[in-house]
Amino acid sequence: MKWFVGLGNPGREYKDTRHNAGFMALDRFAEERGFVFKESKLKGWLAEGQVQGQKVYLLKPSTYMNLSGESVHAFRQFYKARLEDMVVLYDDLDTEVGRMRLRYQGSAGGHNGIKSIIQHTGTQTFNRIRIGISRPQPGRTVVDYVLGEFSKEERKLLPEVLDQACEAMLYSLDHTFEQTMARFNK
């Protein structure tokens, strides 16, 4: 079993914001494979299916970004899921728009969703696909920036990076995360 957690905020007003890049990647993966998200008692929306002979779960926490770890914890408890089988997808200010970066450990780097997952799992060691959103221009607050929608130019770069994230997810089903990092970190 593999499980992928996409971070974002629930609600129509956040749908196309930079902070919802993790949701966007999971939505794309689900759409390509015919998975359907359903509201779950695990504090999120859950989709499941078989991919390459493996059971795959997609989890989008409905707790708002700052409490994402609650949903991760609930899923882990209910399914007795192993952390090494989890991959978290989320927006990253330190990666430029149109790029992604894979890591298997590290601090939250100021990302409140990752901070919450670290608090609820008790470790900084878990697989991550960071989808680049770049940093805001001087004079613009980080909060306004991440909760803002992608610009017209940025939106042109989104399909390719979301496709790459889905490819990395797929590749990670049959390979170690270290192998996946070696293939997709450029």
Summarize the structure in words.
The chain contains 6 helices and 7 strands, in the order E-H-E-E-E-H-E-E-H-E-H-H-H. With 186 residues, it is α/β, with parallel strands linked by helices. It has helices at residues 21-33, 68-79, 112-121, 142-146, 152-172, 177-184, and strands at residues 2-6, 38-40, 44-51, 54-61, 86-92, 100-105, 125-132. The protein has a single domain (2-184), classed as Peptidyl-tRNA hydrolase (Rossmann fold, 3-Layer(aba) Sandwich), CATH 3.40.50.1470. The protein is 37% helix and 24% strand. The longest helix has 21 residues, at 152-172. A 7-stranded mixed beta sheet has the order 2-3-4-1-5-7-6, sandwiched between helices.
Low-confidence runs (pLDDT<50, min 5 residues)? none
Assigned CATH superfamily:
Peptidyl-tRNA hydrolase
- 3D shape: globular
Q: What integer value in Å does the Rg equal? A: 15 Å
The termini sit apart by 27 Å
Main sheet specs: 7 strands, mixed
The percent range for strand residues is 15-25%
Number of helices: 6
CATH topology term: Rossmann fold
